[in-house]
TrEMBL record:
Main location: nucleus
Residues in U-box domain copies: 27-100
Glycosyltransferase is among the record's keywords: no
Biological-process GO terms, alphabetical: protein folding; protein polyubiquitination
Family, similarity comment: Belongs to the cyclophilin-type PPIase family. PPIL2 subfamily.
Protein name (Swiss-Prot/TrEMBL): Peptidyl-prolyl cis-trans isomerase cyp8
Length: 531
């Protein structure tokens, strides 16, 4: 081991002389106290050197001594700079930009305007970007104009024993006229208050106030199972970016929780529909039945369906026909440079595992990546070199002979048919987007029929229950015993023997004898008619 004289513990002399223990803080002023009264200030004023005073304490001192009580240098009332400290709802001083609360370890500075900030705020927003303007008033200032009020790395600014009036034992205005005992009590209170203990003790001993804020109610106990929060059908799986914007931009309102974005009906439909649509394109050369791949190219299909419903393609010509390649249409101007999507802006490409590998493929025409509008083309043969460049959204299912007629038409040098071929009408035969939208709005015929059938089944079941319900049973004992027309039990013994006649008693006795088994082996009489 080395023979270094440094100990691995704090020695007695270090405890006594250095700021390792509580004794090091007894004569330390905080950045929230007046340097003259050593109590929290009410009307703060500061000097260019960063010494903070209360206006009601420093003005009498200046009138009498005309010096700075901390340094002893000349000081006048005009040299004092008003300070503007900002408080939060709890009454604690904080930075007006970042809202961080000032502590005894915060580097606090002030601008010439008097607004007080944390040094890290000024450093990040003014010094590093070289934007020398006040963050609150937009007034220009220079680096040398920044006033340091509290620096945790420079404890000499807060050492009370080095203050001029302490070293030269100059009486402060509050000390004039007090006796030795009062002075001793005040010094003890100031020493204790330097650590913040006095205020806490007095606050605990103070009688309860009627205006004091009542303690908050106890937090509810969190159950072992918390049900998942219900969300609407169009809630996205990503956030609306308001929290990120408030974190990175000072101009945005502070938001601390992420909130899911809400999709429009169109955005929701193009992300949920997984069925295929069908349509009929009627041209001057014949009809084409096409299947639309809404499950792989929902935006292109939705754009085509909505434009067709509006009659956008009616009367639009095939402005470009190239044999053994394709026929292009969808431009109302007929020049190949026009056309607008239903969304109002070019929508992105949708490349899936589809290929221009046969005749009759419907694909979007574009001017480059993500520039799809209203123009589309139909292939005459396989064109695999277009894969990954154009969005495939459909296929011709019926009407190949119509394609052959379009391909065989004569064209000029610009590939424009000499005899115009136009799209007369496009009829949507099956629209899964409309079905999905009706389900969302509760107007889907299939859904309404299912609901009506369920109601009818319930009504029929209730009617059957009323018809075939068991009749109420009697509460008389022996309800299964046979009764006569008068409601009397057949064969019942005379319960009121005292009131019966002799003939009735004799007949009952004879009837009982017939039921007994004869002694000569004759069979018993199993006559149950009396039951």
């Amino acid at each position: 081991m080395g023979k270094d004289s440094d100990k691995m513990y704090i020695t007695h002399s270090e405890w006594a002389t250095l700021d390792f223990g509580a004794g090091g803080f007894k004569n330390k002023k905080t950045g929230k106290d007046c340097a003259l009264t050593l109590t929290p200030f009410d009307i703060p004023r500061c000097t260019r050197a960063g010494h903070i005073f209360d206006l009601l304490a420093i003005v009498p001192w200046i009138k009498k001594h005309g010096t700075n009580p901390v340094t002893g240098a000349p000081l006048s009332a005009s040299d004092l700079i008003p300070l503007h400290f900002h408080k939060n709802k709890d009454g604690a001083y904080h930075d007006p930009i970042t809202f961080k609360v000032f502590t005894d370890n915060t580097h606090i500075v002030a601008c010439p305007s008097g607004h007080v900030f944390a040094w890290e705020t000024i450093d990040e927003l003014c010094v590093k970007p070289k934007s020398w303007r006040d963050l609150m008033t937009d007034e220009p200032f220079k680096r040398k104009d920044i006033i340091t009020l509290q620096d945790p790395h420079n404890v000499s600014m807060q050492d009370i024993n080095s203050f001029h009036y302490k070293v030269h034992e100059i009486a402060r205005p509050l000390e004039e006229g007090e006796d030795a005992a009062a002075k001793k009590r005040r010094e003890i209170a100031e020493t204790i208050n330097a650590t913040g203990t006095t205020s806490r003790i007095l606050a605990a001993m103070a009688p309860p106030s009627s205006t004091k804020k009542q303690p908050a109610a106890a937090a509810p106990i969190t159950p072992s199972y918390v049900p998942k929060k219900q969300t609407s059908y169009n809630t996205a799986h990503f956030s609306d970016n308001t929290a990120a914007a408030s974190f990175t931009s000072l101009g945005a309102t502070a938001v601390t929780k992420n909130k899911s974005a809400v999709l429009s009906d169109t955005e929701y439909l193009v992300t949920t529909v997984k069925e295929r649509a069908s349509a009929r394109i009627e041209t001057s050369a014949g009809s084409l039945d096409v299947a639309l791949f809404c499950d792989v190219a929902p935006r292109a299909c939705y754009n085509f369906i909505q434009l067709a419903r509006e009659g956008y393609y009616n009367g639009v010509s095939f402005h470009r026909v190239i044999r053994n390649f394709m026929a292009q249409t969808g431009d109302p101007t007929g020049t190949g440079r026009g056309g607008k999507s239903w969304f109002g802006y070019p929508f992105p490409d949708e490349f899936k595992n589809l290929s221009h590998d046969e005749q009759g493929i419907l694909s979007m025409a574009n001017k480059g990546p993500n520039t799809n509008n209203s123009q589309f083309f139909i292939t005459f043969k396989q064109c695999k070199h277009l894969d990954g460049k154009h969005t495939i959204f459909g296929k011709v299912t019926t009407g190949i002979e119509t394609l052959d007629n379009i391909e065989s038409t004569l064209v000029d040098s610009s590939d424009k048919p000499k005899s115009p071929i136009t799209v007369q009408k496009i009829t949507i035969l099956n629209d899964p987007f409309e079905k999905a939208l009706n389900v969302l709005k509760g107007t889907d015929p299939t859904t309404l029929k299912k609901v009506q059938d369920a109601v009818d089944r319930k009504l029929r079941q209730e009617a059957n229950d009323r018809i075939f319900a068991p009749k109420p049973a009697t509460d008389v004992i022996g309800k299964y015993i046979k009764k006569d027309d008068d409601g009397d039990v057949v064969g019942e013994e005379d319960k009121k023997r005292s009131g019966g006649s002799c003939e009735d008693i004799y007949e009952n006795a004879e009837r009982r004898k017939k039921k007994k088994k004869s002694g000569n082996g004759e069979k018993m009489n199993f006559d149950f008619s009396s039951w």
